[in-house]
Amino acid sequence: MFSSLLIANRGEIACRIIRTARAMGIRTVAVHSDADARAAHVRAADMAVRIGPAAARESYLVGDRIIQAALDSGAEAIHPGYGFLSENAAFARAVRAAGLIWVGPDPESIEAMGLKDAAKALMQAAGVPVTPGYLGADQSPARLQAEADSIGYPVLIKAVAGGGGKGMRRVDTAKDFADALESCQREAAASFGNDVVLIEKYILSPRHIEVQVFGDSHGHAVHLFERDCSLQRRHQKVIEEAPAPGMDPATRAAVCAAAVQAARAVNYQGAGTIEFIADASEGLRADRVWFMEMNTRLQVEHPVTEAVTGLDLVEWQLRVAAGEPLPLTQDQITLTGHAIEARLYAEDPAKGFLPATGPLDQLWLSPSVRADSGVEQGDVISPFYDPMIAKLIAHAPTRDEARVQLMEALDDSFVAPLTTNKGFLYECLADPDFAVGTVDTGLIARKDQALIPLEVPSQQAADAAAARLRRDWLGWHASGQVRAFRQGLFGFRLNRQAEDGIALWSGEHRVIGNSLAAGTLRADMIGADSVAVTERGQGRVFTFHAPRPRPGAHAGDGAILAPMPGKVIAVDVAAGDRVAKGQRLLVLEAMKMEHALTAPFDGTIGELAAVVGAQVQVEMLLAVVEADPA
Prior knowledge:
- This protein has 630 residues and is α+β, with helices and mostly antiparallel strands.
- The protein folds into six domains: 4-103, Rossmann fold (3-Layer(aba) Sandwich); 109-131 and 206-336, 2-Layer Sandwich (D-amino Acid Aminotransferase, Chain A, domain 1); 132-201, Dna Ligase, domain 1 (2-Layer Sandwich), CATH 3.30.1490.20; 338-446, D-amino Acid Aminotransferase, Chain A, domain 1, CATH 3.30.470; 459-545; 555-627, CATH 2.40.50.100.
- Helices cover 26% and strands 34% of the residues.
- The strands form nine sheets. It has an eight-stranded antiparallel sheet, sandwiched between helices. It has a seven-stranded antiparallel sheet with strand order 24-25-26-30-29-28-27. Strands 3-2-1-4-5 form a five-stranded parallel sheet.
- Helix 4 runs antiparallel to helix 5 and helix 12 (399-411) runs antiparallel to helix 13.
- The protein is elongated, with a radius of gyration of 30 Å.
- The model is unreliable at 484-489, 509-519 and 547-556 (pLDDT under 50).
């Protein structure tokens, strides 16, 4: 076994590889861009080397710099993780040419499976079932149209060099084919520098089934059972699980055997994934499962396989790369229980899953499940890279127990102030079809807005917040319903005798602190005047603004105090002006709301401290109204 390893990646997967390497006594070297100089994977490694500016194309995708970093740091091997250069045959060759160990398959295997058309042809020759379609050299629009007509609609146009959902179009009728082909080829050329496509029969009830395979340099190849990654949004995986729901032993044996056959066809070494598409219109059947493609690297979703097999896939990768045989034979690999993984992202489901970037001021990942993350509290989600925060993985004896456990873990996790897809993930897991395992790749698209958490907090959430506030603000009582005060901001009123305050909800947030259970929801204090409530995975924060005059200055004295931190956006009076009771004096903007402050009685402005544009803190004196003589 080699003694030092450079990880040519970042974030969650770099941290994941470092954990296993350290447990094996292997020294680790991280690489980083300028944006990642203080990232979690850099802090976790034994040594770190800068490889360039923030943009991936100038750092993590520059193979020469990574290889030089390995040589300069004394690393003996390079692990590429996933993404970036992990499936780049030229990089793999360059690593070996530099006298370093490549933790991955042979470059020839990467090339053989890198283009979808060549891979399918190879699999056909090896006797592996493939989806009906056309993958010929004649790429003329007329020939492609004719092949699509012959296959029968709907069909799927796929870029042979594609991935991640790019260069892919579904076509339902012959008249739409030409436009879809042109669009697909244009996107493929822009994304991959290759506009060659293949045509496949589009499966109307598709399930995405994939099999984890491993090979070594001693001629051994095994499978580690299957995963189901059918819950997808725009061809991007959202939730993955192992084993596949509804998979009977006969179908499992046939699919896993086909996967091993595919791996042997390219003399595969290391970790790989054989992806299949299944027509699940009549359940999973061995004669309706076809080869799609092979990923010649570790997959993002590998933790669910680790959970059900009890194995460390990264350790297997390192041992195989060092020339050791596979640690176990096929009959020694067992499957226990069920595991489900959810990908927690900084993104806004209500705004088309727009990525969110910025600081992670607060981050708590539930300890009840496995959490693989590449960020920590205080880190920043950068606009330069994937906005994944963590993968949460639940493992239990049954699928439903794992599903419920993961839902509870989402409720018990929080991120602030960034918006996340946490509530969306909860709704996916709670969906009745998903709950019984009736899943296909179109489920999220069909459910659409039903899986997006409501922006308006429920009355139950407001009641929980009110109950918590009442306990901490003795003598205050909640009144009214949840009401909209301005777009995206909601609240309820609290009152005590003649005074009243307002609790405003301000987006996603979750903090575990001085907790008070209220019904089925938790209400947690944040500091002195805010309450966080999690409702079906979605965080709600209510911030209470009560009149709290500073000593020696209160409304009866005519002191106008800032009721909350904010910005002065308008001042309507000047010192010496006469004002009437109720007249607007100035406007404060706070939490995206405008708050008009008015004269408490008839009088004269005796002091004016407020200035337009100034930032003010709670209880800061803004003005003084001097009452008219009695």
